[in-house]
Amino acid sequence: MALPPLVEPAAELSVDEIRRYSRHLIIPDVGMDGQKRLKNAKVLAVGAGGLGSPTLMYLAAAGVGTLGIIDFDTVDESNLQRQIIHGVSDVGTPKAESAARSIAEINPLVNVVIHNTALDRDNVKEIFSQYDLIVDGTDNFATRYMVNDAAVLLGKPYVWGSIYRFDGQASVFWEEHGPCYRCLYPEPPPPGMVPSCAEGGVLGVLCASIGSIQVNEAIKLITGIGEPLVGGLMVYDALEMSYRKIKVRKDPNCALCGENPTVTDLLEDYEDFCGAVSDEAQEAVTGSTITARELKEWQDSGKDVFLVDVREPAEWEINRIPGAVLIPKGEILSGEALAKFPQDRQIVLHCKSGVRSAEALAAIKAAGFKDAVHVQGGIVSWVNTVDPSLPSY
Ligand SMILES: [Zn+2]
């Protein structure tokens, strides 16, 4: 289904612009008219990370007149494997500022608007309303649902992408013409079920594969050419090297855009909606949580601690707390590893940041190990407060 162009054309292109965009201008479907629409377009990138990097760079090169960047984070060394808009000299600077500098180098004709802040329910509508189109490169479910809800409530289209390890997905959600994200995914996955990129990893180049689909769709929407990915979900498998396009229909029972919506404004708390940990885990950790420092004191005092690292073997290869044994969370939840736990020692669980160990703790306590505890903040906290010489990831 073709759709009319999202943006009216600018009055004219300058001589500089005609020179710069000549390879666009000679494509009949783009031409002067399309390039003028790009010049007039205001596009907001949510996140200047893995997906935000290639999308911002190509949107800038394509001549999108106004590019907004919202990101509250600063550039970290571990970002450089995939977030190619940032470089070594940007480590420590805000991502939005670093991205703006790269864009100025690619195309100084772009007007860049920096939002060096976290997107939240109090600012999302006001920020979105300044743009024609949103490109979502968010890496967490709470923000993803908030972006969707705000876009639907404002009647804005947005281009969505997501990446994990070797798999990527992309779609265009536009309530007026097709389904929204909630039609596709009515509920967030249970807490702890879907690891984040920080936990599970992502192949750096996957960002380019999915980011380029997002830019492609953004250009089509702005200029009104081709068939936009409204009502379609693109699923990419980098190992098989396959792209599959799946039809997504508007759900008449969608809580947001369905016939009898139950969500009529932004939710009070998206973190709560997506749940950092499950209710069982929350209950299990209450009164059964120690800090990394307390673990160190227990070890130093000679307490008989059975320290269990519930992360995955690949993470164990990167760093580990002295004295720990590796029993991945999956083996604990399935029950197969329960026989490895001693009855007469103090059981302490830890993971990377404390979410997986909370889930494992619920299972361990349910199996009768009532005195077991977990380490708040996991090995990240251990590195920060006890042993900064360990590598982090
Ligand atoms: Zn919907």
From TrEMBL:
Location of this chain's protein in the cell: Membrane
Primary localization class, coarse: membrane
Domain of life (superkingdom): Bacteria
Rhodanese domain: residues covered: 301-391
GO cellular component: cytosol; membrane
Keywords: ATP-binding, Membrane, Multifunctional enzyme, Nucleotide-binding, Nucleotidyltransferase, Transferase, Transmembrane, Transmembrane helix
GO molecular function: ATP binding; nucleotidyltransferase activity; sulfotransferase activity; thiosulfate-cyanide sulfurtransferase activity; ubiquitin-like modifier activating enzyme activity
Pfam families for the chain: Rhodanese (PF00581), ThiF (PF00899)
Coiled-coil region: none
Topology relative to the membrane: Single-pass membrane protein
InterPro entries associated with the record: Rhodanese-like_dom (IPR001763), Rhodanese-like_dom_sf (IPR036873), ThiF/MoeB/HesA (IPR045886), ThiF_NAD_FAD-bd (IPR000594), Ubiquitin-activating_enz (IPR035985)
Protein family according to the UniProt entry: In the N-terminal section; belongs to the HesA/MoeB/ThiF family.
NCBIfam families: PRK05690.1, PRK07878.1
The protein's name in its UniProt record: Probable adenylyltransferase/sulfurtransferase MoeZ
Annotated source species: Actinoplanes siamensis
